[in-house]
Amino acid sequence: MLKIALGQMEVVPGRPDINTSTMLDMIAEARRKKAKMIIFPELAIPGYLLGDTWEQQAFLRDCEECGRRIIEASEDICVLFGNVGVDWGKTGDDGRVRRYNAFFIAHNGRLCGGENFPYPFRIKTLNPNYREFDDTRYFYSLRKLAPELGKSVEDLLRPVFLNLDGETVKLGCMLCEDGWSDDYSVKPMAAINRNGPADLFINISSSPFTLGKNNKRNRVFSRQVRETGVPLIYVNNVGIQNNGKTVYTFDGYSTVYNGRGEAVGYCHPFTAELKIVDFDLAQKGENLPPVSIPDDRGIDSIYQALRYGLSKFLRSIGMDRVVIGVSGGIDSAVSACLYTQVLDPENVLLVNMPSIFNSQTTRDLAYKLSSNLGSLYCVVPIQSAVDLTARQISETPVLNLKDGSKFYLSVSSFVLENIQARDRSSRVLAGLAAAFGGGFTCNANKSELTVGYCTLYGDEAGFLAALADLWKHQVYELAEYLNKYVYGTDVIPQEIIDLVPSAELSPDQAVDEGKGDPIIYPYHDYLFRAFMERWNRATPEDILDWYLKGTLEEEIGCRPGLVKQIFPGPRQFIEDLERWWRQYTGMAVAKRIQAPPVLAVSRRAYGFDHREAQNGTHYTARYLKMKKELLESGS
Amino acid sequence: MLKIALGQMEVVPGRPDINTSTMLDMIAEARRKKAKMIIFPELAIPGYLLGDTWEQQAFLRDCEECGRRIIEASEDICVLFGNVGVDWGKTGDDGRVRRYNAFFIAHNGRLCGGENFPYPFRIKTLNPNYREFDDTRYFYSLRKLAPELGKSVEDLLRPVFLNLDGETVKLGCMLCEDGWSDDYSVKPMAAINRNGPADLFINISSSPFTLGKNNKRNRVFSRQVRETGVPLIYVNNVGIQNNGKTVYTFDGYSTVYNGRGEAVGYCHPFTAELKIVDFDLAQKGENLPPVSIPDDRGIDSIYQALRYGLSKFLRSIGMDRVVIGVSGGIDSAVSACLYTQVLDPENVLLVNMPSIFNSQTTRDLAYKLSSNLGSLYCVVPIQSAVDLTARQISETPVLNLKDGSKFYLSVSSFVLENIQARDRSSRVLAGLAAAFGGGFTCNANKSELTVGYCTLYGDEAGFLAALADLWKHQVYELAEYLNKYVYGTDVIPQEIIDLVPSAELSPDQAVDEGKGDPIIYPYHDYLFRAFMERWNRATPEDILDWYLKGTLEEEIGCRPGLVKQIFPGPRQFIEDLERWWRQYTGMAVAKRIQAPPVLAVSRRAYGFDHREAQNGTHYTARYLKMKKELLESGS
Fold it and tell me: Among A518, B117, B253, B284, which is most exposed with the fewest C-beta within 10 angstroms?
């Protein structure tokens, strides 16, 4: 029986000192509990998402030194951990010193696994380079190393021989993506086993939460375990890490699979935890009873990730007080509820900022919400400042210093809308937050961010956009979840949920008259999702194609019959499609470039996970042809 | 004699329709001029920096269709061009349809080069993945394809056989990075020539301007030409492309090298141009006289790139009017001069926004500058709005809705500084710009951006940060260049150049008393540059090391003797070092995440070229040890 400790630790990115100290504590605890082996996540010492910190040689040396301390601590216990592996004598493709994303196996104060490998550590074979991942930028992969040594990748994929109490255990050591090889021509698990066979696979990961990822991971990993017949232990970290524009939560959910591919143990999600399993290698772990792992595709998982991410992000930037503008609408209400879950209500200041366009209805709802939450609350009207701004713009003479002439500018109603939005955020909220000793939040959702239906330096501003990876319908779902399961009472008044969504910036958006946003969420949420999240991003060409085939609603996932209901005919359908496509690829890009960090939950979040250029709008030749034919057919 | 046309075209990223039309025009012109061959840049049809647009299958089909039109146009002329090469039957590492960054050779309506290659086009061998480049994210390289086919990369690197008037020409076809192989284990030029030899190398590129890049390119390319004895033609595009956060200019500078590695012809930088050369293949181009290519390391090249980039960026986003806040300081003065070079002065509105802290000196200088430029000008005082904001913050009761108590916030002088900065940008400039029908500029420089010495939604805001890749000393250099060479008169008053740099946000920054910024530019410019631009990014460990060795000034490039002059001893030196390192890795990161796009000129610009995470400050163990020893030694 092999007593194995799963070290599901919180990794603090860029802090090898803190991480090493966490690991030393966990090693001591595992030793006390008589474990023979402890497994830590990928890049446990440096962290994973560090930007170009990898180019600091002092940082690399620091990580190596921390690694030595862990190796020294491996007396009587085998310590498996991720760290950067540096070859100071070689360069990577960027010409700098060569770095590997490496798997270290330390036992009795020395490293194992160098016998049949060019380094005293193993290295990652598959370096992901999609979504938020930039592995190829920073690490040299086994796929590149092999041809350099005149070998095939498969040749180098061999188990590590470990002597545990006189018995040899053949470990199949993998790093994260190595277990997700479906899209690659190299299959590390199969290759290691062919060159073994292996007794046990270990996958150390640093894998961010994405809605439904674990369901998929259990399928993908179980299948490979069944194909090889070799049990597998997956260890992932918890904590948060970011690429600047996008903040990721790491859910942990470390899992033990027996040789039949059944999960026989797992660590709790979003929880730092040392889990001990008594693993019978001869029985391939079938001594342990199968367990059922919770589904991670629902709104409850989103709530868990957001709450965890918010709490960790605030701690990481040293912020313990926030200011939230509450309009009486749904987004700010959900935002207020989330923050009040992770901060004491006395550290949450909700602010209502009415202008002449705000109804008594929403003002009352903002107060009711705040009252339900028991937070701090104040009302700062913006009308006088907005009037002053409009006056200064329209009454200040603009001099032409070439010819001495002068003229005056005028303030349109559209200009006035944005003046209001900026007045609220950049003047009032930013000032209040500074005086309060905290930051102010951005409450924008993903639908708004997709088409730039928000004002730069206005409602788009804030230190974090916690809801910006949720479509509007998910914001509503989350509101109901918060009331029902988190607060157990209608902390968000039902009227807020029932109210027509509106920015209330002009008479055209009067909620009491049922007027509101130009976005028809039950349709546009899904159209925007097709532009943004679909595997092969949909463009007007695809959308029009589906429209013509009558499969649009099915393809994008909105309610059947909706399209006919909204658009009298193709002309209106096309006008709408082009309007939002222009926004999505035009002004909205410019706005996103200056947007706050987004807390990611979906399989495609704005920021670093969705790279984009301010290139303007393009329609393919085929789209233009289809459109022409359709409109000329007179329908 | 072979008449070759270098098609140094402007590539518009994401617009295959426009680019194809440009190419067809150039092909027609080349044919009229009796050229036998025309060469277009890398990815001439789609453009290079497109973000995740590569995931739109409709876009890929559109590019393929445009490619077919170019191939059809190759009757009687050989057309070499870059386009995306799609293998619809295979996937890339991201699981999506496989894309290659491809080199097409079309002649008489069909493609050449497929005889000894798996595709009817050649593909890029080396995919750069550093700085702003994300090639590995989007394109499958020859390095990955070769092992998949059971071949070595070198096997696949063969010349293309081209029949020109009955004579066979062996072309060595390369894409951009393939010519920059120093840091890679694969050397495409040498390999192609070994498998040839080749008669002529063609390198098609999409290579952004970077200060001094062409000097280096001429060295690197000439050397390889000398080593192989094969002449080389390099064709690069002009125009601008961006990754959202960073805007790049493309300088073209297409160059012909004879077999001795001498440049024998080049296209003008930043100019769309069809250049015809009469190239004697038998003589390896030595029939043409060597030419001297201008140096591109000086302030004149920076000016050229900024002016070109500004002009193209404004056009690309459809903006023809700008508003610029002019404080009477150097940054806004340089900004105003640049914009007035690319826009009519009647479309440039300069705005002075005094508060009680602004001296008459700077107000007068702002007017004098505007008057020299003959632009539009207005004065919008901010004091009344700032007072209103401070009053609203301090006089609004904050209610505690849990216990019914209330309290008041207070406005510190630091809070008041940021209120002023935000009032100027988000309230006045943004409102004025909207009313004026344009955008407002961000005038921040790289020194400020490095340590976040600017206010979010304040002076850091704007549609573009045109000077944000220039250190403060470069801004001064540019000011003198503008006066001397561009305007030929002191359009920027000498007093602005002589004035102490100051934000004028408090009595501590009174310019008339010689008070100003906390940044000592003659030293900190170089310290910050060592953090940010140095090949192996310097950290406090490196800096302290050099300080102790007495080599600091030499290492970072500032004036000798300066460090001793500024810091009485190690304690003050360390305090200063840590202060700015904390800023650089702390609050400044948060600010840069929401900064406007930066116009890049250096070898390391903020934004996509410098990836960073909001991870806070770390000191290595060795730094902390050195610091402790130094401070304890009592010196």
Answer: A518
